Amino acid sequence: MRSPEQAVALLRGQWPRQAGDWLGGGGEWPLRVSLAAPGEKQASAHWVAFEAWRSAWKSWPGGEVSWIERRWPLLGRQVVPEALLLPDANALAALLGETVRWQRACARFATWTQRWPSLATGLRRQYLLLADTGETEFIRLGDMLAWLQAHRASNL
């Protein structure tokens, strides 16, 4: 049984590895996180924990939870949370408290890939640069790229 806290921890671990891939609308959405729903044997052996787990997901505010009905011989009909579904990277960023950094990276990615389309693939590997570089330094970096483009014969 994966708790809300464990699901967030899992997503927090994925974020730094995959945020760059999600720039510009990449990735497969909705993102699905299995909640490792228990079977009847586990649920009945740990009923209090099972009910607490199910209750935590019923009141979950951060994304859509998909539910599945199980018909168990001993416990009867039970509706259990099956997966957490996040519709897009914006929702994931909000869940993780990464909205400001994510929006900054997206805006910078869009600006630079519009100006220099050939940078799109490489920029996806530079999420931290896009998200965390100070504004002055980022402008200087863009100016340097523009200069290099205008002065190709410089061999720099």
What is the topological layout?
Blueprint: H1 4-22, E1 31-34, H2 40-45, H3 47-58, E2 64-72, E3 76-86, H4 89-96, H5 99-115, H6 120-124, H7 127-132, H8 135-150
Antiparallel strand pairs: 1-3, 2-3
Helix pairs in contact: 1-4
What report would you give on this structure?
- The chain is α+β, with helices and mostly antiparallel strands.
- The protein contains 8 helices and 3 strands, in the order αβααββααααα.
- It has helices at 4-22, 40-45, 47-58, 89-96, 99-115, 120-124, 127-132, 135-150; strands at 31-34, 64-72, 76-86.
- α1 packs across α4.
- The N and C termini lie far apart (55 Å).
- The mean pLDDT is 95.
Task: Provide a brief overview of the structure.
The protein has 156 residues and is of the alpha+beta class. 57% of the residues lie in helices and 15% in strands. A three-stranded antiparallel sheet has the order 1-3-2.
Please name the defining characteristics of this protein.
156 residues, alpha+beta, three-stranded antiparallel sheet, 8 helices
